[in-house]
Amino acid sequence: MSPWESLSIMDSAKTDNRLLQGIGASAGIAIGQVKITDRSRVAVTETPVARAEIPAELERFRKGLERAKAELHALRENIAAKRGEEHLHLIDTHLLLLEDIMLIGETSALIENEGINAEGALKRTLHKLKEFFSGIEDEYLRERSADVETVVERVLRNMVGKKQEPITAFEGKVIIVAHDLSPADILQIDKSTVIGFVTDMGGKTSHSAILARALEIPAVVGMERITGEIRDGETVIIDGATGTVIVNPDQNTFQDYLRRKLHYEYVERELLKLTDLPAVTIDGHSISLKGNVEFLEEVPSLKRHGAEGIGLYRTEMLFFNRDTLPDEEELFDAYAAVVRAMAPAPVTIRTLDVGGDKVLTDLNLGDEMNPALGVRAIRLSLRQPETFKTQLRAILRSSALGKVRLFFPMISGVGEVRAAKAFVAEVKAELRAAAVPFDEQIEIGIMIEIPSAVVIADLLAREVDFFSVGTNDLIQYSLAIDRTNEHLSSLYEPLHPAILRSLKMVVDAAHAAGIDACMCGEMAGDPEYLPILLGLGFDELSMNAVSIPRVKNILRRCTRKEAEEVAAHALTYPTAQEVESYLKSVIVSRFTESID
Ligand code: PEP
Ligand code: MG
Known about the structure:
Blueprint: H1 3-12, E1 18-21, E2 23-26, E3 29-37, H2 54-83, H3 88-97, H4 101-114, H5 118-134, H6 139-142, H7 145-160, E4 174-178, H8 183-187, E5 194-199, H9 207-215, E6 219-221, H10 226-229, E7 235-239, E8 244-247, H11 251-272, E9 288-293, H12 299-304, E10 310-313, H13 328-342, E11 347-350, H14 378-383, H15 385-398, E12 404-408, H16 414-433, E13 443-448, H17 451-455, H18 457-461, E14 466-469, H19 471-479, H20 497-512, E15 516-519, H21 530-536, E16 540-543, H22 547-555, H23 560-570, H24 576-591
Parallel strand pairs: 3-4, 4-5, 5-6, 9-10, 9-16, 10-11, 11-12, 12-13, 13-14, 14-15, 15-16
Antiparallel strand pairs: 1-8, 2-6, 3-7, 7-8
Residues 312, 314, 353, 449, 470-473, 520-521 line the site of phosphoenolpyruvate.
């Protein structure tokens, strides 16, 4: 929307300047008129059903499922025609859920055994599944319950014959406000009319947030009650980076955000000019800037932002939301699609990083007192050799299709690396014997995210081809700060001297052994930290798509020498606050003219 179109919205709006706060899900500022889209849950009540009516009730449930499937197939075709094949697996996940044995079996059993109507039975099943999900500690996995809810909602609507308002065909430029939006809704958004969305539900890692980022639509989620606090046609500003929503802005706020919006778009446009330029310092030192992904959908945005490959492909997603483990073919198809989409650039695939109470499948090992310190990641893989080998086979097979690197999460000692590598050797031998192609020279690395791995980095470096520092966990375990606990967030300090010293030890140990030191934790994507990370000697930084040009912008304005001085100086401070203010002064004095 041009600024002038926005201004005409202002003329007709009242200006109570209401400030609401949600979770920033996809960066960008949008200013437009609210279009409330009814995504509220259908109201259903549980009623008893006479014995004789039970077969008819089961049939109604079956028809509801069938109609939901037919709708999803039609939607699949529509989206394939509009956006191509790359987004379809989200629809496929929903189609798979409609085949889910628990969903169907439990609901049918309730109808038969309890003598209740299909809607009531389905609601009870949903409740049970949601309870299960809510006990899951991992935010990302917890939010997968939204998929089950969306699918159940579709079946319920079909049973009660209540159609959902379409998300297409809007007049002018609108910001959709909804209780929740499903991935299918978001895939249908036409960016020429829908300039952003806000939802009551969702978190940073919900499917809708991931898709909004992939499609680069500004979005704020997790507002809790916005659908009850805002009306159709009101003017709204959303800031998808900070999660701020302002309803009926006054003239000053409006002008301020209009300036910010234009600035953001200018910066984004300018930074995108860096896409094809090398990530190299003034004095010719290069660092490889790569991207982190979980979904194939994220690849186009990574490429647009100039990623030189994928430095972290998290593979947890396919193991969730199901009763049975994915088989080798399913895993291979997923990895192959990402490898092909990125080729010839490298894709670094991490083996499964779940465990304890984090999995729905039969991997579940029961309750643990401290899941973060429990049977997770490589510990789980080594205890479940068949699951591990299935994943390794799929990863190795995908290495025949492009450049693939393989790495293991949560390594605490050399024994685990050797055990994991022994499985790789076993799988390689099996593939060789069966004449299945794979890259014999595939590089094998480890995540450095446990303090013990830092302390023995020199010993670990002899065993692998590269290190990748997971700062999200390294900070959590080094400082004993739960990374998901919002009450401790001020203590979660990437610039803590213990963290900086750890990073230095890791890089030095890697280089002494002649291997690459990479980083794929969130710290890698903060442009402010770039001078330190460059100065410490990191060879590769992997981050979310929009951070890539921002980090590159600073990198291209630095010399290696000055970065080394910054890192050395930063290491002399006793507190994170002092490092922070020193770093800020460096950024202000050296990079204020930078476009960001
Ligand atoms: C990390 O710990 O920094 C990391 C990249 O892994 P994850 O966030 O998936 O635990
Ligand atoms: Mg981690």
